[in-house]
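Q: How would the structure tokens look for this protein?
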Amino acid sequence: SAISVVVFSLGGLVLWPQALWMMLFAILGGYAGSVLARRIAPWIVRAFVAVVGYSMAAYFLWDLVA
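A: Here is the predicted structure in token form.
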């Protein structure tokens, strides 16, 4: 991952304003998600992860065969 950052950066392929916004919100989302996951019942977190995972798998399968 660090090597890819160096390669793409040196190649001028990184759109830095957008990348910085993505980094900021990834950090904030990770922190907020961990705080929220600790406050919610574990079965709700597991169900949410399962629903999102199966939904994404179904979407990508549909996109592949359609």
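The helical segments are 2-10, 16-39, 42-65.

Residues 16-39 form the longest helix (24 residues).

Upvote if useful.
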